[in-house]
Fold this protein.
Amino acid sequence: MRTLVCKLMLSFLVLSAILICSCTTSAPEAEATVEQAEQQMEAPAVIEEKPEEQPAEKPMAMEEKAKEKPAETTKPVVEAPADPNIVASICDYIITRDEFEKKLRAAIIPNRYNTFEEAKPVVANDVLIDMLTEKAIMIESRKLGLLESSRVNSAVRQFREPKLANIMLQKYVEERLNITESDIDEKLKADPNMARERAKMMVQNEQGRKIVAQYYDEIYKKRNVQKFSENFPKALEIHNRLLNKPVKARKLKFIHKYQITEEMTQEERNLLLATYDGGKIMLKDWLEALCRFAPPNRPKMETPKDIEMLLDRALRLPLYVTEATSLGFDTDEKLIKQTRNYEDRFLFGEVRRLKTENVNEPTIEQIVTYFNNNKEEFGVSKSMKIDLIWCQDLETAQKAKADIDRGQDFESAKQEHALNKKAKAFTTRPYNEGLFWDELWAAEPNDVLGPLKGYDGRDIKWRMVKILEKKPGEIKEYTEQMNDRIKQRITSLRREEILAEYGKELLKKYPYQIYEDRIKDIDPWDIP
């Protein structure tokens, strides 16, 4: 446990250095000088790296109303990979059993933001086709060179570079920390009520900050940083023009990132502010650093000195990255994998955006026609008020049922068997219950059902359900106030259709394999 705490504190102080150089802020102050922003960055929140998460969007084919498999789903028989955890492959991408089970489990969870469609059974093979479609889009986007676009390249750099610097700094600090018992005792003298472990962490933090500061000074000198102060007044003039006289009128007064490309000449973007062995900082880099501040908290730029102070901040990360690369930390396998995964996710989103950004808006006639054919989508949905006993497992749910069948009232059974004994009755709707809705709706008020499976957040658990109230849905007549919602629905369906067709084309273009014998025993509903 002590080793874990020390590791977390080490990450804390190293990430302080990274955050200082990356110019991210969160304090909601109206204005701040560069010095004030530096002070705010002295104690950033601890950030722990988490496993890579999947995009929030549902895979494109999962949203189709009528599921169709690609035309070419029959492939020649090939030898399956030796690794039994691989369930599918396409080009140099593989899909593991773990990834597939995670996606399959996510697919059966209702989308509470999609109030239009009824839940449909999830077919494992269809989910795997969706995953292969995503991979095909990633392959195609790389082939088309989207990774080299400025938008994608900038996003990937902002993801990768702080991680690369963090790897180097954490190793450097770990090798130089030297905490003695006397250091801890000295800290405890100042506050005898402090826990010893807390004192140790404070000593570690103080030492770590000094080590990082000294290392940065060494890198700064080693890389021969040269500032071009004669260009600071011109940089200030351009900054003030972008801030106070934008080409596009706007309500909020702050510089937008698009102005760097749209409202500056190439010469202005390339205005040199500093050089170092291995790179340079131009005005466009400086402005990107400024744009990483939340607008209410951006430092004022009133003098050339303010330009220089932010430049000092903007120099830190590229200097760390240059040093880390020279020492070979850019070959770290975990970093390479994380970066590629991020590239894939970003490219997938970018392709979706590019493929659907010019979708035609529906006409009024099309809006009215769609409404008349789908009135139930825009009315008030059915609802039920229910009370639940969420149970640890099936055995517990069966015990709760037996007690209720013997005459125990529902609330008493909840207090004895429920995971959450304070849970209150609530209203639920079809899009909350997904595939479980029909069974609940078939019951009547005061009926007790169970044991039944249900969705507890993102998990599937056993439960006992008591029906308290039922309210039928209500069909509404068309009004002009519905236009925006109907238009949004039609546009969404058109986008889904475009993306689905694009995915089918790519699966014909790129050969793939599904090793069905490795997925036939997977059941996402299987819970204890």
